[in-house]
Amino acid sequence: MGATLTYIRLNLSRLLIIIGALAALGTWYLSVPMVDSVFKELNAWQVNISSFTLFTGLITISMRYLRAIQKRDSDVWYFEAYALVLIYVWIILGFAVGMYSDLYQTAYLSTKITLHIAILGQIIFFYTSGAYRTFRIRTLRTAALAISAVLIVALNAPWVQNPFPAASNLAMWLLNNPQMAASRTVVITGGIGSIVLGLRVILGLEKGAQRITEGE
Amino acid sequence: MKIPDLKSQYVWVTVALLAYIIPGVMPLGTGFPMSDTTMEIYDIVKNLPEGSICAIGGSGVFAFDLESSAGTIPALKIMAENGVRIINVPLGTEAVQYEKFLIDASRIEKKYGGTHEYGTDWIQFPYIPGGSSGLVAFLDDIHAACPVDVYGTPLDELPLGQELTNWEDIDLWICPHWGFPTIVQYVTGERGIISISFAQSGAYSTYSPYMMSYPGQVYMTNGFLGGAQMERLVGMKGLGHAAIDAYQVLSILFVVFVALGNATAFTTEEEE
Hints:
By secondary structure, chain A is mainly alpha-helical. Chain A has seven helices and no strands. The longest helix of chain A has 39 residues. The radius of gyration of chain A is 26 Å and the shape is extended. Chain B is an alpha/beta fold. Chain B has one domain: 3-Layer(aba) Sandwich (Rossmann fold). Chain B contains twelve helices and six strands. In chain B, helix 3 runs parallel beside helix 11 and helix 5 runs parallel beside helix 8. Chains A and B meet through helix 2, helix 4, helix 5, helix 6 and helix 7 of A and helix 1, helix 3, helix 4, helix 5 and helix 9 of B.
């Protein structure tokens, strides 16, 4: 990539990020109609660009799979062929009968949704046999793991909650305090990381994110 | 005496038989306690004045969101009985199909002998891309963000569509999808509309603190149990009741298998 193109790509994307970020932040902190209008306009663009990415995804996956089917050098090329056929069958069906038609809905519920629910339902078999095999109390750590799992499962169950209504309060306390404290740590860490990443992108320090390292 | 290790297949067969097949064929009618929050949600939905507008929307994956349908279907029945109008606002690609499923399963449409007529009493919007940006655009100007319904009919040609301008026309927001934080932030936090989530139990354990952050404005039910509670308040037995039956048995099996696993480990170590 030429140096000029790299320079344009770097500064143009940085400029777009700064304008977008400031417009969104501006509507939060300022009650100025002009700022609000700019944000609404940019937001509408963003929604349109999101719609467009669906087509980008379709084109990208089609090109990738078609190439794999032509070469047949991958072990999974026939799955890719199957996926490609299904993608276009569903698109044609949606266009032909309408995505909100009873036929499309029945086809969708009978295949994709039913299979997806079946896959989710299978997890409980592995979960139960996994619990039987791994929640064996040998150390303090395995005791904490096994006892907390059994407590959460039992305290939320009707056979415990019916005779002991306070059990649901204990279950909620466990979920809202120890569990929430740990999960919020992850969320807050991710949030701070996002802010730092955003600042690095705006300052041009995160060159990989803006694909400007290709010319170096 | 050494207790032998069970093969996984035995565990799977026991779970399939006792937690799925038997409760599926012969419902156990498991009793369960009522929650104060579910009662409050029921009152909010029940007391919506005739003609008010409830938005049902968000984003999520259909198979996961099915858990939320247990609470949403009874809520739809209550609203239909009281003449509350409904707009479905899908923010995820599968949400359109899921929201159609909710309307079909609740049997509120006239074609199923219900009260609601499309265009006058309820509208289905098409998928609104852009995530939270799409939601904000919709709330700020409904006609600009979504000029047509899911069939491509201009909103101006639909009686209910003509009444819609922006978020100020929406009286209540129900989120039957996983993605509740977006709704809390932009619908309730920024615009003050009461929001209800018939949450999946996984989402409930993660997002329930929002109820403490927005007391009296954000409400959540807990998974299939919350759905079963809504069903009981409406006087119906649906997916919520069936799931509670399965959970009742499964929770006992889970404790039994963990205890059995520990007994096996204990007796094996003792013998060695």
